[in-house]
Amino acid sequence: MLSAKSLFQEILDNDESFRLFCSIAASGESQGGWENTRIAALVPDSERALAPKITRHGVDEDKHGRIFNALMKKRGLKSVPVPPETDYTMLLEQHGIGLAHEKLKGEEALTVQDVVTYLSHSRVTEQRASEQMDLLRKHFADHPDLGRAVRMISADEDNHLAYCHEELLRFAAQGHGRAIQRTLRECALAEIRIYRDVSLAVMGHMGRILGWSRPKAAVLAAGIHAVYAWERAAGWRRMVSLKMPERRDALGGPATSAPEFA
Fold first, then answer.
1. Which segments within the chain are labelled E, that is strand?
2. Which residues contact residue 157 at a Cβ distance below 8 angstroms, ignoring those fewer than 6 apart?
3. Is 60 exceeded by the pLDDT of residue 30?
4. Residues 229, 234, 235, 239: is their CA dihedral positive or negative?
5. Which residues contact 132 (CB under 8 A, 6 or more apart)?
6. Please, is 139 exposed, middle or buried when counting C-beta atoms within 10 Å of its C-beta (0-12, 13-18, 19+)?
7. Which 8-state DSSP code applies to residue 236?
8. Could you tell me the CA-to-CA distances from 43 to 5, 40, 53 in Å, in that order?
9. Among candidates 16, 1, 262, 18, which has minimal Cα distance to 140?
10. What sections of 43-142 are H helices per DSSP?
């Protein structure tokens, strides 16, 4: 019987599929680290108080990339190039979600609207990250090799999501509510489409590595399309709601260091 746990266990048990999974994850996290670092450097003077939290966000993302690389190293594996069709972060940027990399590579200060756009994009993508890590934590929190990494990354993603909620509500109270809701909706609808395409691409690569039969591959593809259909009809709404998180100032302290993997 196919399940999320059995599917990931199959990927975990094979060195080539595990290496691809970790390479994709490490690349996306490292890219997120760079983006947040640049945004923190370019925050407008009126929002300089937000810069340390954005920096902390970037440090966390960079740490996650190092964790995935360490998991590969522990098994004697080296990262592989990420197939472009599986590069979630770059595909989002190419489709105009978030802040353009050309802008982040420059030295001109961002506007308040840019910061609102960044937070709205992060609120959507961190929802996805939090849910994915929660699923892994559910099944692998006690795994001897992955457990510490899964628990740490999952806690960080929950903090990132809480931070986005709190800061967006602050901006909404300042009169940016309509722009926030418009941006959230645009980001969410684009993200679910890109997530579907990336999921299909990743499963295609995994299927070739693991030798999945055509019926098995077809069932998995149908499942991905079914998730997209639900998200397109109604599920996207969970990505655009805002509520004050139970944990306030989630990124107000120092980042935790990455665990060592002997």
1. none
2. 126, 129, 130, 133
3. yes
4. positive
5. none
6. middle
7. G
8. 41, 5, 11
9. 18
10. 51-74, 88-94, 101-105, 112-140
Average pLDDT of span 150-177: 97
Q: What's the predicted TM-score (pTM) here?
A: 0.94
User: Is the predicted pLDDT of residue 262 greater than 50, yes or no?
Assistant: no
Q: Residue 207 burial (CB < 10 Å; 0-12/13-18/19+)?
A: middle
Q: Which residue from 110, 121, 126, 123 is spatially nearest to 39, judged by alpha carbons?
A: 110
How far is Cα 43 from Cα 35, in angstroms, rounded to an integer? 12
Contact residues for 81 (Cβ-Cβ < 8 A; gap 6+): 23
Alpha-carbon distance of 188 to 127, in angstroms, equals: 10
- The end-to-end CA distance of the chain, in Å, is 34
What is the rounded CA–CA span in Å between residue 224 and residue 238?
Answer: 18
Give residues with Cβ within 8 angstroms of 213, minimum separation 6: none
Q: Which amino acid, 198?
A: V
Q: How far apart are CA 66 and CA 182, in angstroms?
A: 35
The token duo for 211 is: 């030798």
| b/e code 75-112 from CB counts within 10 Å (16+ = b) | eebebeebeeebbbbebbbeeebbbeeeebeeeeebee
Tokens of 120: 């709205």
Cβ-proximal residues to 161 (8 Å cutoff; 6+ apart), any chain? 123, 126, 127, 129, 130, 245
Give the H or E element holding residue 199.
Answer: helix 177-210
pLDDT tens digits for range 90-135: 999 999 888 999 999 999 999 999 999 999 999 999 999 999 999 9
Class of residue 32 by CB neighbours under 10 A (exposed 0-12, middle 13-18, buried 19+): buried
